[in-house]
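Q: Got a minute? One more chain.
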Amino acid sequence: MQIDGFQATVLRPFDLNPSDYAVLAALRRAGEPYELAPNELYTSLERSSGGMTKMLKRLEQLGLVARVADPDDRRSKLVRLTEEGKVVEEQAFEAFVEHTHALLRNSSPAELETIDEALRRLVVIIEANLGR
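A: Always. Here it is, folded:
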């Protein structure tokens, strides 16, 4: 199964797609009060401004995000994860964990060790390239 297909399968019960979840997860990673400027979101998620606007409108209609005034610039808005958005993001993350465990359930200890080593190397590579 392709990664996008795996993500879509896991997220379907939450009425989310992988891009929607990426927004919720980015807001969650931002820490309290779980908000970012729209341009921070579209830059970090490599989306167009127009695409992000459409996505945020959908998430807002679902009650998962809200646009709030930027206290530093009243002309601007921030995107904030709502309480419902936090709950859905947590539930979706748990679903990812459960589905991943199910996929790996029949793996041997040697296979799991190989996967673990590869993921650790991948994390090192990603962290080394974050500054680019």
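A: Residues 3-129 form a domain with the Arc Repressor Mutant, subunit A fold (CATH 1.10.10.10).
Q: Perfect, thanks.
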